[in-house]
Amino acid sequence: MLKKIAITGGTGFVGTNLQNYLELSCEVQPISIRYIPNQRFDIEADAIIHLAGKAHDLKKVSNPQDYYEANYELTKQLFDAFLRSDAQVFVFMSTVKAVADEVKGILSEDEIPNPKTHYGIAKQQAEQYILSQLLPEEKRVYILRPCMIHGPGNKGNLNLLYQLVAKGLPWPLGAFENQRSFLSIENLCFVIKELLENTSIPSGVYQLADNEPLSTNELIQLIGRGLDKKSRILNLSQSMIKSMAKFGNYLYLPLNSERLQKLTENYMVSNQKIIKAIGKELPVSTEQGLMMTFESFKK
């Protein structure tokens, strides 16, 4: 029985929710860490959940080296400490972006990694380091690749979509048909708890996603239902929208090429490996999880 869980990155969105979730069944110890060359950690816990790292920078103002220090070098130091310690479980929060920035079809764990950004490359390097180490028989290691995580306290594109519908503004990108996967924070916390408690789940790499992908148009309609408002979706010319987004790149408008891609891209992620491994269904559906997130935006 794992009684003491050490969590790095505990003050972030995922860390805050995960601590609240796990505190009902075990002692949670938040650890504040940052990369310092040649440092050694001494971990006194039954399990380590490594969430700390540098997130993807949409404004592109970060120094590339920051990603490698925070997401690769720091992970390497912490994993070395895990191997030296008596801790039984190590959970590393990677990302689907460590595999692919664009997806054709449905992304699975069998995909050969080909990350394009410093963020994704650094996470992939951390994964490779963990997988290259000889693991003692009594220890278990899980590399998690979540897709877009959402839940109470989450900011980002979902909040922007919500505000658009809440203000009664039309959604102008109705002509773009896409399907993408999401991950409710409730389902993420559930999976991590299962990994901590179920010793029969084999070590390895697992993708995390809710069961059903949704299109952005379906998201808009879902938000409208939650607000009891009629959502307005416009089918404007795709070529015209793309041209406007290019202007946005130079004029720093809310709609630019990168944001347009984020809002309209296909990014479907398979969760079949983790579902089979835990032998249980996820507690909330894609729609339920999103409605819980949208409800939190009202507060």
From TrEMBL:
Gene3D superfamilies: NAD(P)-binding Rossmann-like Domain. Residues 44-199 form the NAD-dependent epimerase/dehydratase domain. It comes from the Bacteria. This is Nucleoside-diphosphate-sugar epimerase. It comes from Flavobacterium limicola.
